[in-house]
Structure formats: structure tokens, C-alpha cells
């Protein structure tokens, strides 16, 4: 996030795109609802489903799946045409405006309506509202990123925010809501194939030399490694022989699960390090039991870049160890000693090699976290990024054309499927499905469908149906809902017994490598 969570309550207008905020980020949703109810903040919600947060919106725009670039370009067309953009901000702080203006010229509200299904009048009203805000805040989540055009979608939202001068101000910003508690921290620490900690490039010889010196080694790789979504196809081809999986359950969370399972079974050796025996762990050659968040010391970095202490609340069961201790023991047996005394000593090393974390110490975050970048121990941290100037100098507009999703409906597969989460379960259910009360609330998989589609196919509430795509099929119970729109069904991906990802498309965004979880073609029929 460029801004803080609390900035929601300082915004004049909040634009939520592709986020079922009340179910996926219930704590953050309270800030939004409080801002709307008590602070006079106006709310725009853009989502293919009429999610709960839309009840608080001044404007609810319902786009067809996979059309985000089109409606964002449409808003910018209106804002530029009506001269509502922040002219001085654009001229002084940004490059590439001419290219952007030229690209969005054809995205008239009527043209956008043909692509997205959003009525032209509604798009114009939403554009005017966002552009008129002194502080406009954009919140987005996986409904924006999990597409073959996910990178384009994110860049487009950044275009919109810069166009209206909303980057580098309190209450504004472009704010992705992270899907899990330490996704931000994992990325910060180099849990990506092309960077070391603090997003320092592995291809930069100076950075590489610094890391070699810190670790007492030579010959660190000078090229980026593989993304997770690159690894599975290579395993299928027999070119990837071994896999070490920490805290992930790809046999429920990966797209096109039938293919993913065959790929994983083709490995020579697989290690899974986790807190429970997941669906993936059951196929592992070795399972290493690790501690849960409540059983260890360390830090997490949350969605607003805040580095916070984690402390032991309960003792670990059996022989479970800290993740870092397991990794260090393996490293020692492979010939490289990693003799850290404790998590604090690891944090000290992080500070020494990561400029954005250099000023963050255990003492400083004993009671309250600090937001990076924090370059030294006197620095208070950085709640809002890009105040006064962008980190790279000037913000760069990108002129982006809309591209359709990788798969469209046809006579054989006439409905679109989108996937997501529900309030009562989390990710692949590794933890929540061991909780009786949560299982009572949502005991099994369902397919959410509109009243019109249910009537067309003669489905009744609670009836069992079979959902099939070009990749697989599952059974689920019908849930007729006003959230759903005609022509599109929704399935939560939590349930291994009826895994939605047996249906989803493994087509990838060419830059980020993220799969297109949010759009694929299916047919739904009564189960035998």
C-alpha cells in the first residue's frame, strides 16, 4: 500500500475495485464503513458480484469479467475530456501523459459500455466523483490481479490515481490489500525469483557483491529464478526434479489442479514444511513440522508495510520447530553453516543488507510497528509513499489497451466462472476447516448463481449440480443469490473435496506470472 489503512478515514472518496472487502479483509472494511457512515466519505465499488461492501456505496459499477482496463480507461477518458484531472500535478510530477491521453481517447462511455456492460451514465458519474475528491483512495485486491492482464489492471489504477493527483497525499494512494498475513513481508525479504530483500535486483552486480560479502560466499546467481507458476509445468515436463514447499498447499490453491497434481507426482523428490498434514503434504516424500504464528518469535510485515513483532503465545506441539531453524539445519547439513542465535539476530542481518529496513530494530517495534522505508534508527518510518516526488523521480503513465480474457464462453461452456473466498474460511482451509463452528457456518462447497440463471436451468436452492470446464469437473450445492449476475457463477476455492481450481484456467499474466483465477468458461448441469 502506498498509504496507511487509517487513510481510508481521511479520504473524500474511496474506490474499491475487485475486492470483497467485508469477507476477505473484514478489519479493513470497518475503516471503510466507518468513513462512509461517520466521516462523509463517498464510496465507489466496482465488482462483478454485488458484494456486501456495495451496500455502502454511492455508486456500484458491475463490469463483465476481465474488462477492468476498459472501465478504468473509460473513467480517465471522462476525466481528461472534462478537464477534471490534476493538471499541475501531471505536468510537474509525471511523464507519458500524451501517450495516455491518446490511448484513452477511444474509450468513450458508450464504447466502454459495449465492452463492460457498465451503463455509460454510471461510468460518467463515478469518474466525476473520483476526480472531484481532494483525496481519492483506491483499494484493490485479487479481483484486479488474478487475470492474464493483472499487471495491466494494476498499472491502469496507478494511471487513474496519478491523473487525479492522489499519489503522495494523506487519504489517497493506490492500496493493494494483501491476501495473507505476511505476504508483504515475504516479498520484502526476497521471496520472489528476481530480487534479494528490499527488492534489490539479483542482476545488479553491486547488489550481488554486497550479498556475497555479507554471507561469505561467491558466485551467487546473476539471473532471476523461476516463478512458482513456472515450476509446475517444468515438473510435468520432467525438467524440474525436486520441490521444497513451505506453508503452501498448491494441490488446492493452484489452477488446473488435475494438471498440477500430475506435475507434482512427476517429481523425484518433494519436501513440505507446514503446520498440518495438507493435501500437498500427503504426497510429500518428507514432511517437516513447523510452528504456527502463535508459537514463534519474529516479525510480520502487514499490508500497509508495517513491520510488527510476533511473540510466542502458546507452546508448540511435538517436535515442531521455527521455520528458520528448519532451514538453517538443512543448510548446515548441505555444507553452509547458518548459526543464528535467535530471530533477533536474523533481524539484525536483515537491517544490515536491506536499506528500507535499516532503521527497524526489535526495540523500536516493541510496542508499535514501523512502516518501511525506514533508512536509519532516527527515522520515524514512512506512512505515505511518494510525498513531494516519486522514488524514481517522476511517475510514469502507461497507455494500455484492453485485452479480453484468455477464455470465453461458447455453446458447450455457456457460463463464466469466477472464484474467491467466504468470510468463514481462509485460503485452502488448512486451519479454518479444523474449527467446528466455522464448518457449521459453511460446511461445504457451493456455486452461487443468479435467480434468472437458476430459473433457466431449473435449479433449486440447495440442489446438487455438476460444474465442468475444459480442464475438469466438480459437484457442489446451488446457492441462488442476489450477489450473482446473469451469465456468471461464483465458487469459493477453499474446499479440497470440490476444488474450484479443478476448473480454473492456468493461463498466466506474461509479466507477473499470476494465473487467471477470476475468469473461465463452464457449464452447470444437475448432478446425476
Task: Provide a descriptive summary of the structure in words.
This protein folds into 3 domains: 5-177, 3-Layer(aba) Sandwich (Dimethylsulfoxide Reductase, domain 2), CATH 3.40.228; 183-225 and 290-371, 3-Layer(aba) Sandwich (Rossmann fold), CATH 3.40.50; 415-526, Barwin-like endoglucanases (Beta Barrel). It is 30% helix and 18% strand. It is built from 18 helices and 23 strands. The strands form 7 sheets. Strands 17-19-18-23-16-20 form a 6-stranded mixed beta sheet. Strands 3-2-1-5-6 form a 5-stranded parallel beta sheet, sandwiched between helices. A hairpin with a 6-residue loop joins strand 21 and strand 22 (515-516). Helix 3 (68-81) crosses helix 7 (120-131). It is globular. The mean pLDDT is 95.
Q: Helices, strands, pairings?
A:
Blueprint: E1 13-17, H1 21-24, H2 26-38, E2 42-46, E3 59-61, H3 68-81, H4 87-93, E4 94-95, H5 97-104, H6 109-116, H7 120-131, E5 136-140, H8 142-145, H9 150-163, E6 174-176, H10 183-188, E7 195-196, E8 200-201, H11 205-215, H12 228-237, E9 242-246, H13 250-253, H14 257-265, E10 269-274, E11 286-289, E12 298-301, E13 306-310, H15 323-333, H16 343-353, E14 370-371, E15 395-396, E16 415-420, H17 436-441, E17 446-449, H18 451-457, E18 464-468, E19 473-480, E20 488-492, E21 505-508, E22 515-516, E23 520-526
Parallel strand pairs: 1-2, 1-5, 2-3, 4-15, 5-6, 9-10, 10-11, 16-20, 17-19
Antiparallel strand pairs: 7-8, 12-13, 13-14, 16-23, 18-19, 18-23, 21-22
Helix pairs in contact: 3-6, 3-7, 3-9, 6-7, 12-14
Amino acid at each position: 500500500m502506498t498509504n496507511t489503512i487509517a487513510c481510508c478515514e481521511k479520504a473524500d472518496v474511496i474506490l474499491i475495485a475487485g475486492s470483497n472487502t467485508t469477507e476477505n479483509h473484514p478489519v479493513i472494511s470497518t475503516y471503510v464503513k466507518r468513513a462512509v457512515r461517520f466521516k462523509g466519505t463517498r464510496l465507489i465499488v466496482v465488482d462483478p458480484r454485488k458484494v456486501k461492501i456495495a451496500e455502502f456505496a454511492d455508486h456500484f459499477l458491475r463490469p463483465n469479467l476481465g474488462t477492468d482496463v476498459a472501465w478504468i480507461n473509460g473513467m480517465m477518458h471522462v476525466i481528461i475530456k472534462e478537464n477534471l484531472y490534476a493538471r499541475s500535478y501531471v505536468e510537474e510530477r509525471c511523464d507519458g501523459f500524451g501517450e495516455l491521453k491518446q490511448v484513452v481517447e477511444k474509450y468513450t462511455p458508450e464504447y466502454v459500455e459495449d465492452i463492460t456492460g457498465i451503463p455509460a451514465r454510471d461510468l460518467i458519474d463515478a469518474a466525476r466523483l473520483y476526480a472531484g475528491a481532494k483525496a481519492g483512495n483506491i483499494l484493490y485486491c485479487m479481483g484486479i490481479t488474478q487475470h492474464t492482464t493483472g499487471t495491466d489492471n494494476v498499472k491502469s489504477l496507478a494511471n487513474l490515481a496519478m491523473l487525479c493527483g492522489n499519489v503522495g497525499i494523506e487519504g489517497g494512494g493506490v492500496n493493494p490489500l494483501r491476501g495473507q498475513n505476511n505476504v508483504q513481508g515475504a516479498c520484502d525479504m526476497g521471496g520472489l525469483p528476481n530480487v534479494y530483500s528490499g527488492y534489490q535486483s539479483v542482476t545488479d552486480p553491486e547488489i550481488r557483491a554486497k550479498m556475497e560479502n555479507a554471507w561469505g560466499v561467491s558466485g551467487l546467481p546473476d539471473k532471476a529464478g523461476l516463478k512458482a507458476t513456472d515450476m509446475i509445468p517444468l515438473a510435468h515436463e520432467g525438467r524440474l526434479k525436486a520441490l521444497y514447499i513451505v506453508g503452501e498447499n498448491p494441490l488446492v490453491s493452484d489452477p488446473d489442479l488435475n494438471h498440477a497434481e500430475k506435475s507434482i507426482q512427476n517429481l523425484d523428490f518433494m519436501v513440505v514444511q507446514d503446520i498440518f498434514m495438507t493435501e500437498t503434504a500427503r504426497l510429500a516424500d518428507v514432511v517437516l513440522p513447523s510452528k504456527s504464528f502463535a508459537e514463534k518469535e519474529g516479525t510480520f510485515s502487514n499490508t500497509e508495510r508495517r513491520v510488527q513483532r510476533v511473540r510466542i503465545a502458546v507452546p508448540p506441539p511435538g517436535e515442531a520447530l521455527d521455520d528458520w531453524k528448519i532451514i538453517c539445519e538443512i543448510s548446515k547439513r548441505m555444507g553452509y553453516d547458518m548459526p543464528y542465535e535467535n530471530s533477533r539476530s536474523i533481524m539484525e542481518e536483515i537491517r544490515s543488507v536491506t536499506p528500507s529496513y535499516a532503521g527497524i530494530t526489535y526495540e523500536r517495534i516493541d510496542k508499535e510497528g514501523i512502516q518501511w522505508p525506514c533508512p536509519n534508527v532516527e527515522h520515524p518510518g514512512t506512512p505515505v509513499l511518494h510525498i513531494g516526488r516519486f522514488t524514481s523521480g517522476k511517475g510514469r503513465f502507461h497507455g494500455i489497451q484492453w485485452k479480453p480474457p484468455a477464455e470465453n464462453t461458447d455453446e458447450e461452456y455457456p457460463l463464466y466462472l469466477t472464484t474467491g473466498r467466504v468470510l468463514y474460511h481462509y485460503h485452502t482451509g488448512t486451519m479454518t476447516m479444523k474449527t467446528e463452528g466455522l464448518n457449521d457456518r459453511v460446511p461445504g462447497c457451493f456455486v452461487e448463481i443468479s435467480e434468472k440463471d437458476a430459473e433457466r436451468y431449473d435449479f433449486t436452492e440447495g440442489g446438487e449440480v455438476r460444474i465442468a470446464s475444459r480442464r475438469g469437473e466438480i459437484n457442489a450445492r446451488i446457492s441462488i443469490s442476489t450477489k450473482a449476475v446473469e451469465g456468471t457463477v461464483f465458487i469459493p476455492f477453499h474446499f479440497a473435496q470440490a476444488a474450484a481450481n479443478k476448473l480454473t484456467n492456468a493461463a498466466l499474466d506474461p509479466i507477473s506470472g499470476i494465473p487467471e483465477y477470476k475468469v473461465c468458461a463452464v457449464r452447470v448441469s444437475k448432478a446425476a
